[in-house]
Design goal:
Distance between the termini: 47 Å
Number of strands: 10
Helix content: 40-55%
Order of helices and strands: HEHEHHEHEHEEEEHHHHHHHHHEHHHHHE
InterPro entries: G1PDH, Glycerol_DH
CATH class of the largest domain: Alpha Beta
Strand order of the largest sheet: 1-8-5-4-2-3
Organism: Pararge aegeria aegeria
CATH architecture of the largest domain: 3-Layer(aba) Sandwich
Protein name: Jg8634 protein
GO molecular function, one term: metal ion binding
Bound molecules: zinc ion
Strand content: 5-15%
Keywords: Cytoplasm, Lipid biosynthesis, Lipid metabolism, Metal-binding, NAD, NADP, Oxidoreductase, Phospholipid biosynthesis, Phospholipid metabolism
């Protein structure tokens, strides 16, 4: 974890050791009145004594979907939304935790994505410190300052804060449900499509770009791609390398002052699909990202292979956007993007060969990514997640208008494909 020690400024420490048995003593270093959040699955990993010593909330287990590789138990618990399954952290959950934790001076997350997001956002709103005990290498949000929260049926990213410390129990992380680990791998390996999109925006529009978050994970990415099969065997060394990569990826977002280094077109498509289907429960974040990463990788390759692209105006009607997403917020974004067109056309005309060769330098091929996902039984096509293919294609075509971020999704709409 040498990189982390060098670049951590806001979080005091990331420690790796057997922590589950010592969690109370660890927490006491940071506060006296501790409020701990876990879920039904992660609470089983705790030493029972701690629950007698600290205030706590055990949230119903994350609903688990049967899947080929999943080795956990099936559960159909609901969380604050009685009529539908909901695996995302909701604002109601955050408010409940805020009320219960009023008298505490330290909040503690013992779990993965949902537990962490609830704790991060609730502690931020209450102005309290929190520490994080990740229980799976399932996402890159442990070391990011943003929290993903479900509000009125929409998942939104809120600015929050970093934990005072992150403690990793190596046994817990290595033995986490395989599906969670593989989801984390997909959320990390989208680095390739993310970097291509972010660099494209920089080269075409002069937006800020920082290569450091990618440089910091380059070696780890090489090892993970080479030894990806070890993830399926829950090999402790390789799962911990993934965890390290995810933590650095989270910090990359702090360095980039936004999610730019970890979330571009592939995340936009996944969010757009969630918005259209209102389905946040039936697959894991990283599984959606695996599918959308393959879509983006193919799209980027196709566009980059055009030698002299001919640009055309965006002709999309705003009605399409509102009909598809049921949201008028995006009209403004579409209009802004239509205004950028002339500038983009000019630069493409003059600079395309240079731009495409710079972007190609850091690209993983769609074929390579697909092979790795296939090897690990990670879903990579919309039908693998039971997404309607026709609806998926329609959403992919309109996704560019859902965010003011410029990606290959924008180019797809304004380049003539021969
Ligand atoms: Zn992600």
């Amino acid at each position: 974890m040498r990189y982390l020690k060098q670049i951590l400024q806001h979080t005091e420490q990331v420690l790796i050791r057997e922590v589950a048995d010592n969690i109370y003593e660890i927490c006491r270093q940071y506060g006296n009145d501790i409020f701990l959040i876990a879920d039904e699955n992660t609470a089983k990993l705790l030493n029972k004594n701690i629950l007698n010593k600290v205030s706590h909330l055990i949230i119903p287990a994350t609903p688990v979907i049967p899947a080929r590789d999943y080795d956990g138990s099936q559960c159909h618990a609901t969380w604050m939304t009685p009529n539908r399954l909901n695996r995302a952290a909701s604002l109601q959950a955050v408010n409940l935790v805020r009320n219960k934790a009023k008298d505490s001076d330290l909040m503690v997350a013992f779990g993965s994505g949902t537990v962490n997001d609830i704790c991060k956002y609730a502690s931020y709103l209450e102005g309290k410190d929190y520490i994080s005990f990740p229980t799976a290498a399932s996402m890159n949000g442990y070391s990011s300052a943003n929290a993903s929260i479900l509000v009125d049926g929409y998942k939104k990213s809120f600015g929050a804060h970093l934990p005072k410390a992150i403690y990793i129990d190596t046994d817990i992380i290595a033995n986490a449900p395989l599906r969670l680990t593989l989801s984390g791998f997909a959320d990390f390996i989208c680095r390739s499509t993310v970097q291509a999109d972010w660099l494209l925006s920089h080269l075409l529009l002069g937006t800020e770009y920082n290569e450091l978050p990618f440089k910091l994970v380059r070696n780890l990415e090489e090892i993970l791609l080479r030894e990806h099969l070890a993830l399926a065997k829950k090999d402790k060394r390789v799962v911990l390398l993934l965890m390290e990569a995810l933590l650095i990826s989270g910090l990359g977002m702090v360095m980039s002052k936004g999610s730019y280094s970890a979330s571009q077109g592939e995340h936009m498509i996944a969010h757009a699909i969630e918005m259209v289907t209102q389905d946040y429960s039936s697959s894991l974040h990283g599984e959606k990202i695996a599918v959308t990463t393959i879509t983006m990788a193919n799209l980027q390759e196709e566009i980059l292979s055009i030698r002299n692209p001919i640009t055309k105006p965006i002709t999309l009607d705003v009605k399409h956007i509102t009909q598809c997403f049921g949201n008028t917020e995006f009209i403004k974004i579409l209009k802004q993007k239509q205004m950028m067109q002339q500038k983009i056309q000019e630069i493409i005309c003059k600079e395309w060969s240079n731009i495409s060769s710079l972007i190609k330098q850091n690209l993983l091929s769609a074929k390579h990514l697909q092979k790795v996902f296939e090897d690990l039984s990670i879903p990579y096509l919309p039908e693998h997640l039971n997404w309607n293919k026709e609806q998926y294609c329609k959403v992919v075509n309109l996704t560019f208008a859902t965010r003011d971020r410029f990606t290959f999704l924008d180019l797809a709409g304004c380049i003539e494909k021969s």
